[in-house]
Design a protein that fits this description.
By secondary structure, the protein is α/β, with parallel strands linked by helices. It is built from one helix and nine strands. About 4% of the residues have low confidence. The protein binds copper (II) ion (CU).
Length: 146
């Protein structure tokens, strides 16, 4: 009889362990402002740690390949154009989160999306709406600052 309760509580703990990141993200997502990719405690996750590899001043391509944006974090001066190119065999999107600054809609395999960056300077987070684990970030710099 006692053993039954032990198993029952172990089951509840196991279920909570699996579901808590999802529950956490639902609640955190409503309050975390412009930092949508913060990670649940104890869960390995480095979405905020993407290194900046490029500063784009005219025209740059962001590849979508193997369900990831590359480069995932890019500096862009105002007036430059970004082109997302879908090299995968599945559809993706490039969708700004929180800011609502842009939304590519569905980019089919082999498709592309152009964005001329006329946004206020600052950091803009985006994701693929089909695969929200695909995240990226553009850092808009004032025109003429580089
Ligand atoms: Cu996707």
């Amino acid at each position: 009889m006692k053993r039954k309760y032990v198993y029952l509580s172990l089951e509840i703990i196991a279920i909570l362990a699996v579901t808590y990141p999802v529950i956490w993200s639902v609640y955190a997502g409503t309050t975390s402002g412009n930092a949508p990719f913060s990670c649940p405690p104890l869960i390995p996750c480095d979405n905020n740690a993407q290194p900046v590899s490029t500063t784009c001043t005219t025209f740059c391509i962001i590849n979508i390949q193997n369900a990831a944006f590359s480069p995932a974090n890019i500096n862009v001066t105002q007036g430059a154009t970004l082109e997302w190119v879908n090299l995968d065999s599945i559809a993706h999107t490039s969708t700004a989160v929180y800011s609502g600054a842009w939304n590519s809609g569905v980019i089919p395999p082999g498709g592309h999306f152009l964005l001329t960056v006329n946004l206020a300077p600052g950091t803009y987070y985006y994701q693929c709406n089909v695969h929200p684990f695909m995240t990226g970030q553009i850092n808009v710099l004032p025109a003429g600052s580089t």
